[in-house]
Design goal:
The protein contains 7 helices and no strands. By secondary structure, the protein is an all-alpha fold. It has one domain. The longest helix is centred in the C-terminal third of the chain and has 85 residues.
Length: about 180
């Protein structure tokens, strides 16, 4: 979020492209969640038997934990937010950055609570409630992904439509 605009500049990637790519990733993850089938006790037991300590150590950081809280879609969103925080007036940029950092702190607390008490919450709402919660969350994520893709595509289309206008203005000035 803090250095995303510099990374984009370094690689020559435009913000609308990041929005399209991040939105597609988010929509893809949400689509898989929408189609996920609940695991049966037999499938959970076979998965637990196949999961060795060596396997657990290899996956301790990625991909078990990384996509949950900081996957490619959330990185794209962080970069997009970070680019929007910059302003020509340094005071406004600092105020926006301070607000974003406070929001990150709140998100951190919410993630902690979700990881800490998620099992209790899911036990409280039961299997049917968990399935409904998963589908509802997946649908909201899918909608967010589509919205992010649309925002990026809209910006790209506006850029494409503005090119002939600029060419016409140049031709009028040059006299050709």
């Amino acid at each position: 979020m803090l250095i995303g605009s510099y990374v984009l500049d370094f690689f020559g990637i435009s913000l609308p492209i990041v929005r399209v790519g991040g939105g597609l990733i988010l929509a893809s993850v949400a689509w898989r969640l929408l189609g996920a089938t609940p695991s049966t006790p037999d499938s959970r037991a076979s998965l637990a038997e196949a999961f060795t300590p060596d396997h657990a150590q290899r996956q301790a950081f990625y991909p078990l934990t990384f996509p949950i809280s900081c996957g490619p879609a959330s990185i794209a969103v962080a970069i997009t937010v970070g680019v929007a925080l910059h302003d020509v007036q340094i005071v406004i940029s600092l105020a926006r950055m301070g607000g974003a950092l406070m929001a990150l702190a709140v998100i951190g607390v919410l993630l902690y609570l979700a990881f800490r008490y998620g099992e209790h919450f899911l036990r409280f709402i039961g299997e049917a409630g968990t399935a409904v919660f998963l589908r509802l969350t997946a649908f909201i994520l899918l909608c967010l992904g589509v919205q992010i893709v649309w925002d990026g595509l809209r910006e790209l289309l506006l850029e494409v439509m503005a090119v002939p206008t600029h060419l016409a203005a140049v031709r009028a000035i040059v006299g050709g």
